[in-house]
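Worked example

This section walks through a single chain of length 109. The input is the sequence exactly as stored; nothing has been trimmed or padded.
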Amino acid sequence: MTGPVTGPTGIGLGATGATPERDRLRQAAHEFEAVLVTQLFKEMRATIPAEDAVPGQEMFTGLLDEALASEMARRSTHGVGEALYRQLAARLGGPDLPANGSGNGNGSR
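Given that input, the structure is written out below as tokens.
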């Protein structure tokens, strides 16, 4: 017997009890958040002067940043990925989503 299917960010498909379409949307939103955080890390590291860089260090630092960003996005419940998911999932219709606002983008309840 195999375990749940997971995407690159480790988010389980079908694990939330939502439709597969919503699970794919949540996974894509969290992967988008991981891309944004990776870019943030990259730009932050660019501000630090390189001292005695070892060959290949930049590549491995980039891989570390990607792994950290992916894990941050996977574990985040109040980040950009989850906000994006709520906004887009509201357009899918179906059962109501547990959302902090009305879904109209202005943050009202």
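What to look for: Helices lie at 20-46, 57-75, 80-89.
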